[in-house]
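User: Design a sequence. Structure:
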């Protein structure tokens, strides 16, 4: 049986119907919730998280990311494709080179807030982001 924030037992149907209706009217639809779940799934891969952490520090090309993470360029390119499709990273072409960076300030905040949340809970990760 669940409980509310005061530690008292949760009684199904205990909320006044107006409260439930008010919350229900502000909840996003199933399509949005599905998209949000997919977004979080993209973040559920260690390699993609490592790429995001690296790009939070500097714009980089595939070869540099591959070298940093000790992976093949092909593997990094595949993960960057997933990150681009999720609009977490963007590419900038300069001559024959393509440089990757975080897509926008929202992605920077997600990486920063996630890092801060873990460190606040006592999980240390080496160098700061």
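Assistant: Done.
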């Amino acid at each position: 049986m669940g409980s509310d924030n005061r530690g008292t037992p949760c009684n199904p149907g205990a909320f006044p119907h107006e409260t439930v209706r008010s919350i229900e009217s502000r909840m996003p639809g199933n399509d949005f919730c599905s998209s949000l779940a997919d977004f979080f799934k993209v973040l559920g891969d260690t390699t993609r998280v490592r790429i995001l952490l690296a790009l939070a520090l500097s714009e980089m090309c595939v070869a540099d990311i591959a070298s940093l993470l000790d992976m093949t360029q092909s593997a990094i390119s595949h993960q960057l494709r997933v990150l681009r499709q999720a609009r977490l990273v963007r590419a900038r072409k300069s001559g024959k080179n393509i440089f990757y960076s975080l897509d926008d300030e929202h992605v920077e905040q997600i990486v920063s807030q996630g890092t801060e949340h873990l460190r606040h809970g006592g999980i240390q990760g080496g160098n700061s982001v």
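The chain has a mean pLDDT of 88. Residues 105-120 form the longest helix (16 residues).
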